[in-house]
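Hi again,

Forgot to attach this to my earlier email, sorry! This is the prediction with adenosine-5'-diphosphate bound. I've pasted everything inline since the attachment limit keeps bouncing my files.
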Amino acid sequence: MHFHRFDEPGKVKLDKISEEPPPNVTKQEARDRLEKIGEELFELQGWMWGAHTHSVLLVLQGRDAAGKDGAVKHMSGALNPRGVAVTSFGVPTQEEREHDFLWRVHKPAPRAGRFAIFNRSHYEDVLVVRVHELVPKSQWSKRYDQINAFEHELADNGTRIVKFFLHISKAEQKKRILERLEDPRKRWKFSPSDLEERKRWDDYMAAYQEAIRRCNTPWAPWFVIPANRNWYRNAVVSQIVLETLEDMKPKLPAPKLDVREDMID
Ligand code: ADP
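Structure tokens for the complex follow:
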């Protein structure tokens, strides 16, 4: 089964990309494919763990209600939990603000053999920070190059970085916000700031577009994921992670001992 891929995020025009799955992909097909992907992913993760030379960093970005939590749950559920750590990035603490913006991101970057999943990330420092001018433009505008250099350093040290923008439409966001308001089991997820941020829809669009264009590098590519349907979002994210692992070609770890049958009583 073939999923739609965006090969040139460096030239991306977000308003030209559909948030819906391509019409030829069915939910059932995606589910079937996911099951296979899951098995392969789990196995290759084990090899990466055994080899202990490389790691994977998954970055999830998207607007409010775009499904970041759902994607994190899906990806972390597909992996062996001993080898995956999830970090969520909220408003920086006083201490974090008093350091350079990458300070808080470096430590949770993954160790050899492991996955790290970032729910929001250092990209907030060119997204919310830019939209709300939390620091002057002279400062945030330098961050694209700083991010590229930082990601390059991680990549040079064995980390494969894959970045996902979960792309939802304005109408879908409204639907999800209304669900949060109307469903007592979802109301806790609603934050009044969601409405304020929604008013800045176009500003965010411009900020995401620039981040994706300027920080789509060979060592840390961006993928724009049509995310109006959760089943499609999950399938595409998994597929990309699997392809990344396959491309890394982790070696089957060597056995520690050549055990013969007669050694086991
Ligand atoms: P979420 O909305 O991801 O479920 P939270 O309710 O904790 O989680 O929201 C995190 C908030 O932190 C978001 O509004 C986000 O814009 C903000 N945030 C994250 N990183 C930064 C940053 N570097 N500077 C300012 N705000 C940030």
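Residues 89-92, 120, 124-125, 128-129, 134, 191, 193 surround adenosine-5'-diphosphate (CB under 6 Å). The chain has a mean pLDDT of 94.

That should be everything now.

G.
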